[in-house]
Amino acid sequence: MNTHLNTQSKSLTYLVTGGAGFIGSHLSEHLLNQGNTVFALDNLSTGNIDNIQRLQGHPNFHFVRDDIMNQMVLDRLASQSDIVVHLAAAVGVQLIVERPVHTIETNIMGSEMVLKTALRYGCRVLMASTSEVYGKGIKIPFNEGDDVLLGTTDKSRWAYAASKMVDEFLGLAYWQEYGLEVVPFRLFNTVGARQTGQYGMVIPRFVQQALRGDPIKVYGDGTQSRCFCDVRDVILAIAGLAEHSDVAGKLYNIGSTEEVSILALAEKVKTQTGSASEIVLIPYTEAYPSGFEDMQRRVPDIGRINARLDWKPTRDLTEILTSVIEFEKSRM
Ligand SMILES: NC(=O)c1ccc[n+]([C@@H]2O[C@H](COP(=O)([O-])OP(=O)(O)OC[C@H]3O[C@@H](n4cnc5c(N)ncnc54)[C@H](O)[C@@H]3O)[C@@H](O)[C@H]2O)c1
Predict the structure, then answer these.
(1) To test the ligand 1 pocket, which listed residue (17, 39, 46) has its Cβ within 8 A of the most ligand atoms?
(2) In total, how many domains does the chain have?
(3) DSSP H helical segments within the chain, as ranges?
(4) Which ligand 1 atom sits closest to the C-alpha of 68?
């Protein structure tokens, strides 16, 4: 809609694909609080209408239950929008391993349609990519300029990373060839209220198991580590990139640098919930289909986004777990 975007001076209209998802619902709420208008497009495949319940009465919030593959709907919404934040994707390790065709098609064709449509209406595009694209990289921390090493194509787990890499290539190509303002960002593990444990997300899963008194199931030997970033911090980074006039055509890591092993995470969840659950180790061969490969460490270098936006996470793991525990208790 607006090729002469002046983000400093007026409220904007955002199209958030995946707007009823975990990150999308938090982002939509933040954008509305900043005085913007939000169209949330979501087919509710992994998202949930409950995530956006509190936004439904807002005069500037418009939820459209549909698919990003529906060109007519995309056209209608993009033609009224200044910025598209493209979050809709097939997500979650379990889902990806079990439904590789769906993963590849949603992530590649869906993003292609979003980019083509954004180009038609001159919308700036923010695209969610993932730390998974660093693959089996062992140079810590992961920097946007690092080479990547993925597993072989007969291991469907890597379809997610490869599909998101194609999205990045395509987005950057639209910037290079057509001058469309595209900002791909690589999210590291993002956590907080409303995230579902259903698709293999580790923190909600551990918290639910601990609260029920069930065994807390750690896959592998638990020495693999991750850095968990609070969704409330992550959306500030995404909104910051959306509003910044000089960030297009570059990749940005978004994540926390506080590293914890999955076994230590399980112990911390057990302590913070006051649970009597035992912690059990489940071999990968039992947890996932054969040939599953995990990444041992994933630590982001956030120097680039910090230099651009002065952004860094403000909440530590204890605070993150407190909010997830509170949320899961309210759901029970
Ligand atoms: N949460 C994380 O730790 C994390 C890490 C790396 C990258 N990401 C990326 O962030 C984005 C958001 O992830 P999330 O954690 O909020 O997951 P989520 O599953 O809660 O959000 C994705 C949303 O997209 C919707 N969706 C999926 N396919 C769609 C389609 N074809 N049409 C319309 N809507 C569709 C789902 O219903 C869901 O609401 C994704 O692109 C994901 O790859 C997330």
Answers:
(1) 46
(2) 1
(3) 22-33, 71-78, 93-98, 100-104, 110-121, 158-178, 202-212, 231-243, 262-273, 284-287, 303-309, 317-331
(4) 32
CATH of the domain at 184: 3.40.50.720
Q: Is 326 helix (H, G, I), strand (E, B) or coil?
A: helix
**Adjacent-strand bridge partners of 39:** 15, 62
Residues with CB under 6 A from ligand 1: 18, 20-24, 41-47, 67-69, 87-89, 91, 106, 110, 128, 130, 187, 189-190
CB-based contact 154:116 (threshold 8 Å) = no
Does some domain include residue 250? yes
For residue 208, is it within any domain?
Answer: no
- Which residues pair with residue 142 across a beta bridge? 300
> Measured in angstroms, how far is the CA atom of residue 129 from the centroid of ligand 1?
10
Q: Is the overall model pTM greater than 0.90, yes or no?
A: yes
In a domain, 8, yes or no: no
d(CA 297, CA 137): 9
Average pLDDT over all residues of the chain? 93
CA 90 to ligand 1 center in whole angstroms: 6
Nearest alpha carbon, ligand 1 atom 7: 130
Domain extent at residue 94: 13-190+229-256
β-strands 83-86, 190-191 pairing: unpaired
273 is a domain residue = no
Active site members: 160
Q: Which two tokens stand for residue 55?
A: 């936004």
Would you tell me the crossing angle of helices 317-331 and 202-212 to the nearest 10 degrees? 60
262-310 residue pLDDT tens: 999 999 999 999 999 999 999 988 887 766 778 899 999 999 999 999 9
